[in-house]
UniProtKB/TrEMBL annotation, chains A, B:
Keyword set includes Lyase: no
Superkingdom: Bacteria
InterPro entries, per database record: ArsR-like_HTH, HTH_ArsR_DNA-bd_dom, HTH_MetalResp_TranReg, WH-like_DNA-bd_sf, WH_DNA-bd_sf
Annotated ranges, domain HTH arsR-type: 1-91
Pfam short name (any one): HTH_5
Lineage of source species: Bacteria, Bacillati, Actinomycetota, Actinomycetes, Pseudonocardiales
Name of the protein in its database record: Transcriptional regulator
PANTHER family: TRANSCRIPTIONAL REGULATOR, ARSR FAMILY (PTHR33154), TRANSCRIPTIONAL REPRESSOR SDPR (PTHR33154:SF33)
Alphabetized GO MF terms: DNA binding; DNA-binding transcription factor activity
Alphabetic keyword roster: DNA-binding, Transcription, Transcription regulation
Length: 105, 105
DNA sequence: CACTAACGTAAGTTACGCCTTACGGAATCT
DNA sequence: AGATTCCGTAAGGCGTAACTTACGTTAGTG
């Protein structure tokens, strides 16, 4: 089962996209603003934002001729929940394994 | 500042590595065991495990001629904390922004 | 109505990541 | 000691993701 959360993990695999998302977490801003603070061109940022948008990690809010991007809190929450669940399961299985070993050495 | 957590995000960017990690979360197992359940060769799995190990997401435990891999709970916890902090900051900044807008429309 | 600013997309190049096959080392068994 | 199993690494091929430049579109501005 491939959910859109999977796309989020793939999207966050790129350092530039992580940087962009960290930037947007501070405050929403336009494409040009982001590109000015990164060592890549503006179209490159635009492409990254498209990937992040498809992964439900950012939202767009047109404002005049500019497009203000911001973090998609809902998508981010879903990602966090998935990691939490995974963490819980890993810890649970680890404890179970330890118990089995102490019973049968 | 590039921490080893950054490597974890990069490592989890690959679908095969996410699959391997999910597999190891169920229970620790050897390289061959993992490869048998994946559509890739054993050396490929070995390379993925190396990346996961460098990212502090898995641990190795030599056992005879076999090498048992398991989830690195400590590294995974660190990753979870980072995501939690990021989530908290994003939510905080969002709230702050809403307040500023309600004050000055 | 030009003119500009901001942006998305197309086309093309390039670098890198993933995978394979081949080889060699280490531990176990007979 | 020889054979076998399990594994890591090297070398190379190959697809694709990330970037650039170029162009077209849309919304403000004088």
């Amino acid at each position: 089962m491939a959910t859109y959360v999977d796309d989020a993990w793939t999207a966050l695999g790129d350092p530039s996209r992580r940087q962009i998302l960290r930037r947007l977490a501070e405050r929403p801003c336009s494409v040009t603003e982001i590109a000015e603070e990164l060592p890549i061109s503006r179209p490159a940022v635009s492409q990254h934002l498209r990937v992040l948008k498809e992964a439900r990690l950012v939202l767009v809010r047109p404002q005049g001729t500019r497009r203000i991007y911001e973090v998609d809190l809902q998508g981010l929450a879903t990602l966090r929940e998935e990691l939490d669940q995974f963490w819980g399961k890993a810890l649970e299985n680890f404890k179970r394994l330890v118990e089995e070993e102490t019973e049968q050495p």
